[in-house]
Design goal:
Length: 287
């Protein structure tokens, strides 16, 4: 059974879903960053499958879902949400390394967390489903940025993310519910507000993905062969810097976890089982 929870983390109300049995290996599911993203929108049909063997935690990230509509504008969109994620785990008393599994933006957060010395020892494995860490977006990705607030526009957005599937309209309705929560619109647009030239400050060059070099944490890169939002071959490009990473392709668009939950879990579950039982083997370049 999946349980909805609310906890306060550093003053921010934080919604998360939990399932499975405490004491089992912890899998943390991270949702996509499209309009209306949330734990249930992105992972609702996968969580019950994972709960049979794992203790599942699936938070709504800051600015999304039922979590506080707050953002940090002086750092990357990944960094402050990663800090909030691990503070949530602290609040829940989870201090053993966890398996991060993310789709799209959530997968990018998971990959970026591997490059941060504050968190790498708390990560048992990383799985990203069409989350590249930021680079290799197609021109079509820009179409996800606009949203007029209507159900019809959410239908357009879901069409960019998902293959046709039976629960298409249910996905549209749930995503629209979260997309129209007070504050979500402002949080999504805040990082893109133009700044006068005189007030602009240059930020350091982004070393990613080169800063994945030397990481030994098991990584699964799941690439959708029909994804129109990120460039084909992104997983192989990351693997050039993290040669131990496992690359798997799937005949799907950007969110197979939504459209093909059982098939997606077969792939994820197999990788996680190996990461739990033989992490050194999974991380081996010959695995």
């Amino acid at each position: 059974m999946t349980i909805e929870n609310i906890v306060t983390v550093d003053g921010a109300a934080t919604r998360y879903l939990s399932a499975g049995t405490p004491g089992k290996p912890v899998v943390v599911f991270l949702h996509d960053g499209a309009w209306g993203g949330s734990a249930d929108v992105t992972w609702g049909d996968v969580i019950p499958l994972a709960a049979a063997d794992y203790h599942v935690i699936a938070p709504d990230l800051l600015g999304f879902g039922g979590t506080a509509k707050t953002v940090a504008l002086d750092t990357s969109p990944f960094a402050f949400r990663t800090s909030h994620l691990f503070r949530l785990l602290d609040e829940l008393g989870i201090d053993s390394p966890v398996h991060l599994v993310g789709n799209s933006f959530g997968g990018s957060i998971a990959l970026r967390a591997l490059t941060d010395s504050k968190f790498v020892d708390r990560i048992a494995s990383v799985t990203t489903v069409n989350g590249t860490g930021g680079p290799w977006k197609t021109e079509t990705m820009a179409q996800l940025g606009a949203f007029d607030g209507t159900v019809e526009d959410v239908r357009r957005l879901v069409g960019l993310l998902c293959d046709p599937f039976d629960e298409f309209e249910a996905q549209v309705a749930l995503r629209h519910k979260w997309a129209t929560q007070p504050g979500h619109y402002q949080c999504m647009f805040a990082p893109h507000i133009p700044v006068p030239e005189a007030a602009q400050v240059a930020r350091p060059a982004d070393p990613y993905p080169a800063n994945l070099t030397g990481t030994t944490t098991p990584v699964l890169l799941l690439e959708g062969e029909n994804d129109v939002l990120v460039e084909s071959g992104w997983a192989a490009r990351i693997a050039e810097f993290a040669p131990h990473a496992r690359v798997v392709t799937m005949a799907a668009m950007h969110a197979p976890n939504i459209t093909h939950p059982e098939q997606t879990w077969q792939i994820l579950g197999s990788f996680l089982a190996e990461a739990v039982s033989a992490p050194d083997l999974v991380a081996s370049p010959t695995a």
